[in-house]
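Researcher: We're reviewing a set of sequences before deciding which ones to prioritize for further study. For each one, I'd like a predicted 3D structure that I can look through quickly. This is tRNA/rRNA methyltransferase SpoU type domain-containing protein. If possible, include the structure in C-alpha cell form so it fits the rest of the review sheet.
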Amino acid sequence: MESEALAAAAAFPLTPPQQYLIINNIQKRKNIRDMLLSAAAFGVVEVLVVGQKLLSFDQAMNIEDVLPNFQFPFRITRFATLGECRAHLVAVEPTVTILGIEILHNAKSVNDPDVFAGPTAVMAGNEGSGLSDAQLAICDRFVYIPQYGGGTASLNVTVATSVVMHAFALISNPDVCRSQNLHMPATEVAAIETELEKACPHALGEWTSTAITGNDVLSSCLYSSGIVASKAGKLAPVANILVAATMYLFRFIYIEVVSAIPLNGGSYNTMLNTTSKRWAAFVSALAIIAYLATGVVSAVSASDYLQKEVPGLDTIWSATGILTVFAILNVCGLNDSAVVALIIFAVHTLTLIGLVLASVVYAVQHPHIFWSNMGTPFPSLDVEGHDLPGNAATALFFGFSSAMLGVTGFETAANFVEEQAPGTFRKILRNIWYLSSFFNLTLSVLNLCVLPLHVTTANSNVVLAMMASTTVGRWFELWLSIDGFIVLSGSVLTSYVGITGLAKRLAKDRVLPEFFLVENAWRHTSHYIILAYFVVATSLVWILEGNVVMLSSVYSYAFLGLLVLFAVSAMLFKLKRSQMPRETTAPWSACIVGLFMSCMGFWGILMGDPKVSVVFATYLLTVSGLILLMLERLFVLRMIMVVLKTISPSPASDKMRLPLLQSPSEVLGGPAIVKAIKTINEPPIVFFCKHPDLQVLNKAVLYVRRNEHTDNLRIVHVYSRGGAPPAAFHDMVAVLDCMYPKLRIDSVVVEGEFSPSTVHWLSHALNIPTNMMFIRQPDNMDAHKVSMLGVRVITG
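Model: Here's the predicted structure for tRNA/rRNA methyltransferase SpoU type domain-containing protein, in C-alpha cell form for your review sheet.
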C-alpha cells in the first residue's frame, strides 16, 4: 500500500518539474539564438553553456532586431567541461535526467508517456555530427523525434531541440488539469492518530484558563473605576449594571460561535469563516490595536501605581521601561505561565475582596460621604470640543461607554481556546462575567461611599489605592499599589504573548508578511513580532504623553469595535453556517441588542473625546494599510512593473548581458517582479469536496480567486475504502479548469476515511498547511472535527 501511495505521488509531482537546456558544440550563432528563444518560450529555468566561445554566444544573444527590449527569463551559467556541468546539475536537482537528442537503438520516442521523468536537462548535438562521445557519456537517456512524411536524415538541431522542450513543457505545464489517486497507508494513519492524541493534552483547566483571562479583565478595575466616576458621577453603578447586562448577552454569543469553530483567533477567526478574507483582515487590525492598547494602558497604569509609592517617578519613562523589560523577557523565551497567572489572579482577587470588605465597614461608619456624593451635580462634559452641562442622560450614556473599559480583556479567552480542555470555554466566560460584574458594580458603589467625587476625579488613575489608604491605612495602600503594579505588569506580558500568537496566525494566513514567522536560533522566539510591538507601543506612550484617559479611550475604541464586528459575524454565522454543530444557540434578540449596545458604547467614546479618534484612526489605518498591502501585493507589483517599463527601461545592451552575470531577481525591472509574482502564487490551496456538485465547486473557485494568491487549486475528494470515486468528479474539475485559465485546478481522490488524521496525512503528503485547506460547511461531528484543525469553512 505504501508503494502505491508513492507511485501515485510520483505520477503527480507536488510541484512541476523544471527544465534545463545544455548548449555545447553548437556552431551557428543563429541556431544558438533560436534555441534561447525556444527555451524562453517553453519555460526553461537555466541554460548551461559548456565550452562555447564567449564572442559567438554574446552575438547570438543580441536579438534586438527580432524582439526589441526582450529580456531572457532564465539563468545562464558557464562551464569549462561537461563534467562540471553535470556536477552542477546534480547539486541543484539531485534527481535530474540529462536527455540527449539522438537517433539511437535505445532512444525513446518523444511521444512516449514515460520519456520524461522529473527534472530534465535537454542536450542536442552538433549541426552535422550530432552528439559527441563526451556528450553521449553524460546522458542518462535518449530521445528521438519520429517522422511521418517522406523522411529526412535528421531535423535541424534547433527544430529538434524545440520539439523536445515543447513536449516536456506540455506534460509539466501548470495550466493543464491533472488528476491524482492517493492511497493512505494504514500504518501512517495510525501513527498520525497517536500523535494527535499526544499533541492535544488540554492541560489548561477551568481555573487556570480563568486566571489567564481574569488577569486581563480584573486588572481593568484598577484604572476604570475612576474614569467611569469622572464621566457618570453618582450614576456610575447604573452604568456598570448596563455593562454587565451587555456582557451577559455577549457570553452566549461568544459561546455559540467559538464552540462551533474552536480555534485561536477570536473575532478574526469568526469573520474568516463567515465572510471574506479582507473583512477578517480588517478585524485582525482591530485586534492588533486592542493588544497594543492593552499593553500600553497596563504599562502606564502600572507606572501610576508605582509613582504613588515613588514620588517623582516619570510615568512615560517608567512605562517605556516596563515595555522594554517585558520585550527582553519575551525575546529570551519567558512565556505566560498558567501557574504564575493563577497565583497572581488569586492574590489580586483576594486583595479586591479585602478592599470591598474594608470599604463596606468604612461606609457603615461614614454614611455621610455617600449622601454627600448623591447631592453633587452631574459632571459637565467636553463633547466634540464644546463644554456641555451634565444630566442623567449624558451621565448614563458617556458613563456606559467608559464603563466598557472595565470588561476589556473579555475576548482573551477566545484567543487561546485550542489550549483549553473541552467544555472549559463556557465556564471561563461564566466565571469572568460573575467576577467582573461583581467587582465593577461593588467598587463603583463603594467608591461613592468612601471618597468624595472630586477626590475620585482628581485621582482617577489610582482610585483604588486612595480607597485602600482611606479605609485601612498606609500599609494597605502600599499593598494594593504593589498588587496593582504586578497585575498590570502581568497584563503587559499577556499582551506580548497574545500579539505574538495573533501575528503568527496572520502571517501563516498570508495576511501579514511571512518574515514575522522567523524565529531566532538562540531561544526560538519570534523576535520580529516582539520588537515591532515594542516600537509601536512605545510610540503610543510618547505620542499621548502617558495620558491614561486618552490611552483608555484608544483601548475602548478597539475593544468596542471588536464587539460590534463580533456581533455582526455572529449573525452572519447564524445565516451562513446554521448547520454547524455548536454547544448553544444565542437568540437573535441577544445578537441585535448586543450589537446596539456596543454601537452605543463606540459612539459615546467617539463623541466624548474626538482627539483620541485621530490617534486611533492613525494607528488603525497604519496597521490596515500594511495588511492591505499584503492582500493586494500582486496588484502593487504589477503597477511597479508598469511604472518601471515607462520611466526607466534598461539599455538593450545591458539587458543582453545581465542574465549572464546576475540572477533574475537582480535584473532591473521585469524579471525580478515576475519571479516575485510567481513565488507569491506558487503555494497551492486545497478544497475538500464531499459530493461532486458543480455549483459548490464553482463557489469554492470564486472564493479562492477573490481571497487568496495562488495559481493552483487542488480539489480533494475522500471516498471509503473498497469503494470508487464519483465518475463525474474528474470531469467537473476539468470543466472548471477550462473555465478559469489563470488558475490550475487539479483533482485529487483519496481512499480512506475523512477524519483529522486524513487531513494531517494530506497536509504532509502535499506539503500544504491545514490553514490553507478549505471545506464546505460541515453538517456532522466528523467533518466538524476536521474544521477544528484550522481548515477554513468557505461555503454554505
